[in-house]
Amino acid sequence: MNNIVLGKARQFIESIPHSRKMGMRVVEIGDGKAVVEMPYDPALIGDPVTKVLHGGAVSALMDTASGAAVVSHHAAGVGTATLGLRIDYMRPATPGQAITASAECYHVTRTVAFVRATACDADMDRPVATATGTFTVPTALK
Amino acid sequence: MKKPEPVTQVKRRRDLALSVIVNQVPYINFLGVTFDRHGDELTATMRFHENLIGNPELPALHGGATAAFLEITSIVGLAWTSLWDEIETERLNVKSLQAGELALPKTIDFTVDYLRSGLPRDAYARARVNRSGRRYASVHVEGWQDNRDRLFAQASGHFLMPQRDG
Predict the structure, then answer these.
(1) Which residues 65-124 in chain A show a CB within 8 A of chain B?
(2) Cys-Cys with B46: which of A110, B27, B69, B88 at CB 3.0–4.6 Å?
(3) Domain of A40, in residue numbers
(4) What CATH code is carried by the domain that includes residue A94?
């Protein structure tokens, strides 16, 4: 993907109201892969005792990164919607650290795009969560 | 024979316990999710806001906002169900809850099934605890908008129960 296309894809993802509200930033995008970062924000806390982010916030990040990966795949494209998303939470994210989700759209049929994603905090060796998702492929592309 | 407890007192105790569970979680407030209670039945509402949009063209709710809404509904529903007996018998000290001593269930896995695109309107959800053991619980949750029979999303998940043994 060249820089103009990359810039457009980044702008497209970062202009999504809900993703913007959560402070999500596209780190990398192209060829069916996307890396999206979400800063730590006390408003997103799910556990008041430990200050750990809510699982739902991690889900929203995973969904955004996965959708971005689909959008950047040559055989899928803009106008996708999530069909299914499964998230496994391996450990609580460390409070104060940003979460980075890396998603890969690894297979696309005429109708469905398949994605897997991993979310990490500063410790990149121990993922916070993993996800698998299925997304629609816009009919206009056929 | 003991006189039945006045209804206003019963409601006050239940509503206070519910508000303690809900208000202690910043993310629930961030998404604008509130809960209505009828007896032990809870209905969650995610009031529509432009910030919840994921596709400005349609427009449609963000899949992540929908997932988060259903997960919140599951966790609050599960916490509520598991505390109900203690709330009713007044074994639960609401004051100690307010001091922030309430540990919530933790999500192990969560699977969302998107049935229709989320419209730019209020969304509602109800959770059903299918199994609640000492360590693990399994919850199913349904989300709808204008029509109760036309779900726009459903989800199910496993949760790790807080260990509150004394």
Answers:
(1) 67, 79, 81-89, 92
(2) B69
(3) 3-141
(4) 3.10.129.10
pLDDT band, residue B166 (cuts 50/70/90): very low
User: Contact B62/A18, CB-based, under 8 Å?
Assistant: yes
B59-118: pLDDT as tens digits = 999 999 999 999 999 999 999 999 888 888 877 776 666 666 678 999 999 999 999 999
Whether the upstream peptide bond of residue B59 has omega within 30° of 0, thus cis, is yes
Q: pLDDT, tens digit, for every residue of B47-59?
A: 999 999 999 989 9
- The alpha carbon of residue B10 is apart from the nearest alpha carbon of chain A, in Å, by 27
Residue carrying structure tokens 């103009």 = A4
Q: What is the pLDDT of residues A64-93, one digit of tens each?
A: 999 999 999 988 877 889 999 999 999 999
Q: Does A134 touch chain B (CB under 8 A)?
A: no
Taken in order B98, B102, B108, B109, is the CA torsion positive or negative?
Answer: negative
In order of their start, the domains of chain B are: 7-160 (3.10.129.10)
Contacts of A47 in chain B (CB under 8 A): 25, 104, 106
* 3-state SS class at B159: strand
Query: To which H or E segment does residue B70 belong?
Result: helix B63-88
Mind telling me how many Å the CA of B7 is from chain A's nearest CA? Answer: 31
Number of domains in chain A: 1
